[in-house]
Design brief:
It is a single chain. The protein is α/β, with parallel strands linked by helices. It contains 7 helices and 10 strands. The strands form 2 sheets. Strands 1-10-9-6-2-3-5 form a 7-stranded parallel sheet. β2, α2 and β3 form a beta-alpha-beta unit. α1 packs across α2 and α2 packs parallel to α3. The structure holds 2-phosphoglycolic acid. The site of 2-phosphoglycolic acid has 8 residues, from loops.
Amino acid sequence: MRINVLKDYETLSRSAADILLSTVKENPKAAIIIATGSTPTLTYQLWVRDLLAQNIPTDNLTIIKLDEWGGLPMDHPSTCETYIRTYIFDPLKLREDQFISFQSQPEVPEQECLRIAQEIQRLRSIDICALGIGKNGHLGFNEPSDTWSTVPFVATLTKESLGHDMLQGDSSKVTFGITLGLNTIRQSKHILVLANGTAKTDIVNTALRGPVTPRCPASILQELPNMTLLLDQEASAKL
Ligand code: PGA
């Protein structure tokens, strides 16, 4: 595990974008798990800008959505779907077959998890997984729990997650979360985790210095040798 502390959010985002950029340069057929939320937004903007400016081919990439708010229409402004389409899919003009993506209103959510698991199984490998850390220690919608998750699954969301900024104060239509499990995350060749700001200081400290326990899913990062954690000074303040 590598931990880099960067000066600020902009430097952190530049560094993360460079890692994503190298991944695509090294393997134009890379499969990439994409987390959403406020943390990686500038990273994706810089990454996409550079991919386009440097004419790096993206027509063989596969983008995998990490998780989704179950119950919202796919095109709702708060979905992870809308986020990925806005920041990555549309600007890169990707094709639908380059996107492995949970439906947000599946008829049978468990079936949707199976479908995604099967699509991922068909990939040669997952090259990189971009992750944030939730204020409650979640990774994707792997929420604090008594057991570790494995495969994609339907999650019961905590109050903290339902208060996430993405939902802009309205979680009324969100009835579940749907997410990749930790085995899929762990099978990525490289796991890139980002955390910035004072809101993440305590959870970063708990995740890295506390016990490895499913009560704090991000504590699993301690056991991942192929993980790069990029922090700004505020998020790293208690380490
Ligand atoms: P954030 O979300 O990047 O908006 O802080 C991270 C998360 O909740 O997983």
